[in-house]
């Protein structure tokens, strides 16, 4: 049955079409993802957002400001448990490794889109810090971070039943084969059985259904989804904590073979982050864009946010909480700042 959008909301098909145009623009007009040194503030903003929201989906209570302080300055701001700080730190370390694979795959990479060593590495990196202070109470010595479970998982409340633990290694190998086959089709522009976002949804859901680890499967699954994306030349995605209910409901529908809702959620997330890279490159000097897209080596994202809040930078804060301004406004702010500094020096 075709998806019908709610009133005023783009249809799923139009979301996919919009995403296809943005992907084509990224690759054909802009030459792919920018190097971190060319767009460091944008990469860092995505990093902070992903580490915050992906751990919050699992119940972590650090707010974005605390995550930024932890990752940006190494400061544990607030009065949260060590476990929660370590959850964010571990996830962030794993995400940073994933991002690095967009441009410079390391020695773990064997030419396949994903391999089993990388599946284990993602889980090991994300979960070791939290395991050090709060290991899973049922884990054996062979079930720590990076190791597949040797326990059966009880069926989930919605009915999903992960495979018995002796089947996990073979199921993971099969999942990797599916990932690589899909990736090869994308790279060679071969016809996919579903729209790309729904193929990604299928792969993400399949990993979660296998549930290969005793704990941390949601975090590992989202990190691996982003590893697939960056290896294909696309920016990582962020599932926001406010989308938790929609995300879980979409995963349940995917369990029953309907990948549309999860595909649409992924498509919207892909488009949002594509805009972080595309808009700064194609927007005119007066177009409003997120502050992350306007930060440079001369003015940091933190400085722009501070200036916006103090009214020194002509900027607006949207209903999503994101500050937006224009290149023209930033140039005017910097010129005024330079003028004030010169007057102080003259005095």
TrEMBL record:
PROSITE patterns given in the database record: FIDO
Catalytic-site annotation from UniProt: 211
Transmembrane segments: none
Fido domain span: 114-280
Positions that bind ATP: 215-222
Keywords assigned by UniProt, alphabetized: ATP-binding, Nucleotide-binding
Site feature Important for autoinhibition of adenylyltransferase activity, where: 58
Matching InterPro entries: Fido, Fido-like_dom_sf, Fido_containing
Name the UniProt record assigns to this protein: Fido domain-containing protein
Phylogenetic lineage: Bacteria, Bacillati, Actinomycetota, Actinomycetes, Micromonosporales
């Amino acid at each position: 049955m075709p998806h019908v959008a709610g009133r005023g909301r783009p249809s799923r098909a139009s979301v996919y079409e919009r995403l296809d145009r943005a992907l084509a623009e990224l690759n054909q007009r802009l030459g792919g993802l920018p190097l971190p040194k060319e767009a460091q503030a944008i990469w860092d903003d995505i990093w902070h957002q992903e580490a915050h929201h992906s751990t919050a989906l699992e119940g972590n209570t650090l707010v974005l400001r605390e995550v930024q302080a932890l990752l940006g300055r190494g400061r544990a701001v607030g009065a949260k448990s060590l476990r929660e700080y370590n959850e964010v730190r571990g996830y962030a370390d794993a995400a940073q490794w994933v991002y690095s694979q967009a441009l410079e795959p390391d020695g773990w990479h064997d030419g396949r889109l994903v391999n089993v060593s990388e599946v284990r590495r993602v889980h090991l990196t994300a979960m070791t810090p939290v395991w050090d202070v709060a290991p899973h109470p049922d884990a054996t010595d062979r079930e720590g971070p990076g190791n597949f479970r040797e326990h059966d998982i009880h069926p989930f409340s919605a009915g999903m039943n992960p495979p018995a633990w002796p089947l996990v290694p073979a199921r993971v190998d099969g999942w990797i084969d599916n990932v690589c086959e899909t990736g090869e089709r994308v790279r060679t522009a071969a016809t996919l059985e579903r729209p790309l976002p729904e193929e990604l949804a299928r792969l993400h859901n399949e990993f979660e259904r296998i549930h290969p680890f005793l704990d941390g499967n949601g975090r590992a699954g989202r990190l691996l989804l982003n590893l697939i994306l960056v290896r294909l030349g696309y920016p990582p995605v962020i599932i926001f904590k406010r989308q938790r209910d929609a995300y879980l409901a979409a995963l349940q529908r995917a369990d029953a073979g309907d990948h549309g809702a999860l595909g649409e959620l992924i498509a919207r997330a892909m488009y949002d982050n594509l805009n972080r890279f595309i808009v700064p490159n194609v927007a005119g000097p007066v177009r409003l864009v997120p502050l992350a897209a306007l930060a440079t080596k001369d003015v940091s994202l933190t400085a722009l946010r501070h200036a916006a809040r103090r009214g020194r930078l002509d900027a607006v804060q949207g209903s999503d909480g994101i500050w937006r301004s224009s290149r023209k406004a930033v140039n005017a702010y910097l010129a005024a700042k330079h003028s004030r500094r010169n007057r102080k020096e003259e005095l």
